What does this fold into?
Amino acid sequence: MRKRIIAVAAIATLLTGSSVLAAGKSSAEKGKELFNDPKLGNSKNESSCTSCHEAGKGLKEAGENKKLTKLINKCLVTQMEGEKIDGRTASMRSLKMYIKTLGE
It folds into this structure.
């Protein structure tokens, strides 16, 4: 009985672990979606990143900034009246990936 419980627990861990990994994938495409999303960071107004940076205006060199996560969060909190996004999340990685493409 104990072996069966351990086997079921191991399978459950593998299944949930792989779905978490899939949900945590980062991409520039996902970043572009988030960049245009007025609900990013639980924004309390209708602003998105595009509201101030249409077509990436003013962000051509931002992708190289070592404090890019801080800059993104500053915009989220001040301009968009939202909440910070953890820098380790797929959302933040995706946003940064997309912003880096604006300088190419």
